[in-house]
Amino acid sequence: MLIVEKATEVVGLGAIQHSSGVKFRVWAPHADSVAVAGTFNDWSETANLCEAEEHGNWFVDISNAKVGDEYRFVIVNGDQKLNRIDPRARQVTNSVGNSVIADLSFDWGDDNFKMPSWNELVIYELHVGTFNRSGDGVGTLDEAAAKLPYLAKLGINAIELMPLSEFAGDLSWGYNPAHPFAVETTYGGPDGLRRFIKAAHQHNIAVIIDVVYNHFGPSDLDLWQFDGWSENDKGGIYFYNDWRSSTPWGDTRPDYGRGEVRQYIFDNAMMWLEEYHADGLRYDMTLYMRSVDGDEGRAIPEGFTLAQWINREINQRFPGKITIAEDLRNNPEMTKDSLFGGAHFSTQWDAQFVHPIRAVLIEIDDQNRSMDSVKNAILAKYNSDVFQRVVYTESHDEV
Predict the structure, then answer these.
(1) 166-177 mean pLDDT
(2) I need a surface site. Which of 7, 10, 302, 367 has the fewest CB within 10 A?
(3) Which backbone phi and psi does 76 adopt, to 5 degrees?
(4) Would the pLDDT of 4 be above 60?
């Protein structure tokens, strides 16, 4: 199945800086009114009212808003008055705090890094919060960067950072993204990530970002019933509001069939590559993007085509950057070219390798070890290509 899709031209969603202020635009199709309250207007809920635009967007240009200012959207829907963090905020004070107008400028120097050929990648999965922390605190990206020479000496030439989007609390695996566009504050925020990637490139190490598109939250989630509308008491405009909402992490599956949500996730994927110079993306559990609960009879075709669209665009716009699926169903469709109906991932985590090899490694009695399973694990491939799989024995799940 090939869906030919083109990115929608949406100018200035979020807080967009310009020479004489900041433009704010937010999607809230069921709102009766929207205002922007922030440090620039003493948190007034009436000083900066937005104008309604087409497609459910609301817009205001505020001349005295500037980088570093905090703000929120104030949304009125009937009797409801909702105070929301910007869904596209690049920075927040914390997961239940305020949006921050982030400084998007950064001195990348002469960073024109090209990642090694995929067949040469030695990937180190890294959890920022615990990798190089001091004492009982939470590790930061700057602390992790200090250990890059050690990783380079080990022979590592690619780092996969476990999810970085702002999550509830200070210490988490990261698979509970509350604000998908904001880099976790305790890790060092957007500048911390830019410094880390720039330093990694200087050590000839690629950086792959782990992204979570199979669900959001479920806690500290301002996207939930964002503009006050929902059906069946479910998540509202960003989420499915029927049986397709159900995930192992709550009723928080994004609505992959709604154009604005597709664009939201598409733009998020492109952000990591464009604004942060990341070298690829690893998608968390794609099985739950393309199906409700792993049951192929409860498939979600639009989740599959969304991944297909993003991956095809990355392949065209950023040749050589890698996309990795964690699907774990030994499905060759995930790494097949979209021209032939595949999801167009570069490669996928290989369950055909990790489970049989781990079983052999932990077996105590030699006579119970299956050498056939080792042979089959080594020789497995997808679509006749041995490099369409990432082989590993340790990950955050197995550890």
Answers:
(1) 97
(2) 367
(3) -110, 125
(4) no
